[in-house]
């Protein structure tokens, strides 16, 4: 008896066609504008599934929050109000210091540095296996995200955006085997490249000569080379240094400071628009920047909030009439002490 329907192609033939199609997609991925647009369209289309898969966790979080004891909420509310008052007082002082700093820079004829703007994003899904270290966040093209944008958390650098949809973006983590980031040792300004190993707790420092001064416990920060990551952000801590006499290069591994395995919220960084055109900072400048940031963290300054300063706001904030000029400088009191040499020159004039 003959079957009503024709037989399906053999399994081996289907596997062969699937392999050919996969190779064709891999070779054509990112090569043409049509493929980039197709990837962006598919990322946008799949974004709804991410939100749908994340719905149970959101519902459970809401239910658990509603079951919290009322007394505990009142205590937390009281503590938060006190902290808010303190932060508001600090912000008032910060605004005053910022205006004063701008005026002093004008007096010194020094260019203003635009503040980095940061925005919080939430992790929707994560893919952290040996060959793929990526996460998807709920910030997309509509929120201003762009390909190549650096992403950090409260401890250090996480990675950079590699694909952008309308409402979601895909972030390549620094631990991915295809990722590399230029870093430098904070202690002695030695620059090198930190590459991902596929493990969430390890980075590899390749092509480092044995004679380089690097030790276990050294802090690695971004150097600013390449113009992708702003300088001075912590990246990792050197965990192991092995110098084999038969090998010209040392074997160095480092542990990322960011909690790669426990990511929930991240910070998207919008750096200065002229960052790619600016001159690369010297190692000493990077060291000073890191030390200032560490000092601010010790003082309890909230680094997650940042102010956006544009040229229009600078014009409204700074009034050139308030800047002292040689004509309206305060006169010196006659009773003030004057150096004898200066007094002698003044008498001669």
UniProtKB/TrEMBL annotation:
Coiled coil: none annotated. GO terms for cellular component: plasma membrane. Residues 340-349 have a biased composition (Basic and acidic residues). GO terms for biological process: regulation of cell shape. InterPro entries: Cell/Rod_1 (IPR042177), Cell/Rod_MreC_2 (IPR042175), MreC (IPR007221), MreC_beta-barrel_core (IPR055342). Residues 295-349 are annotated as: Disordered. Keywords: Cell shape. Gene3D superfamilies: Rod shape-determining protein MreC, domain 1 (2.40.10.340), Rod shape-determining protein MreC, domain 2 (2.40.10.350). It comes from the Bacteria. The keyword Signal does not apply. Belongs to the MreC family. This is Cell shape-determining protein MreC. It comes from Alitibacter langaaensis DSM 22999.
């Amino acid at each position: 008896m003959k079957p009503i329907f024709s037989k399906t192609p053999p399994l081996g033939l289907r596997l062969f066609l699937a392999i050919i199609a996969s190779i064709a997609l891999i070779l054509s991925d990112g090569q043409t504008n049509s493929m980039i647009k197709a990837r962006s369209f598919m990322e946008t289309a799949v974004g709804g599934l991410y939100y749908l898969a994340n719905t149970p966790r959101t519902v459970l979080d809401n239910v658990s929050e509603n079951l919290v004891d009322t007394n505990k909420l009142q205590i937390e509310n009281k503590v938060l109000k006190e902290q808010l008052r303190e932060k508001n007082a600090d912000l008032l002082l910060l605004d005053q210091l910022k205006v004063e700093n701008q005026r002093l820079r004008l007096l010194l004829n020094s260019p203003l540095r635009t503040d980095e703007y940061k925005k919080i994003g939430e992790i929707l899904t994560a893919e952290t296996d040996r060959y793929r270290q990526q996460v998807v966040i709920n910030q997309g093209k509509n929120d201003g995200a762009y390909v190549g944008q650096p992403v950090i958390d409260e401890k250090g650098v996480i990675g950079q955006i590699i694909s952008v949809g309308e409402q979601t973006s895909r972030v390549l983590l620094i631990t991915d085997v295809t990722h590399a980031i230029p870093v430098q040792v904070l202690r002695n300004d030695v620059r090198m490249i930190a590459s991902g190993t596929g493990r969430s707790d390890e980075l590899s420092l390749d092509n480092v000569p044995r004679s380089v001064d690097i030790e276990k416990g050294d802090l690695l920060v971004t150097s600013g080379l390449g113009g992708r990551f702003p300088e001075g952000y912590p990246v990792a801590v050197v965990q192991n240094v092995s110098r084999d006499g038969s090998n010209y290069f040392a074997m160095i591994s480092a542990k990322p400071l960011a909690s790669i395995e426990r990511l929930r919220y991240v910070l998207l960084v919008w750096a200065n628009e002229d960052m790619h055109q600016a001159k690369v900072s010297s190692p000493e400048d990077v060291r000073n920047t890191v030390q200032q940031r560490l000092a601010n963290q010790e003082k309890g300054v909230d680094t997650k909030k940042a102010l956006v300063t544009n040229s229009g706001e600078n014009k409204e904030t700074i009034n050139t009439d308030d800047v002292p000029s040689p004509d309206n400088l305060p006169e010196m009191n006659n009773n003030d002490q004057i150096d004898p040499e200066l007094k002698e020159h003044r008498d001669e004039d």
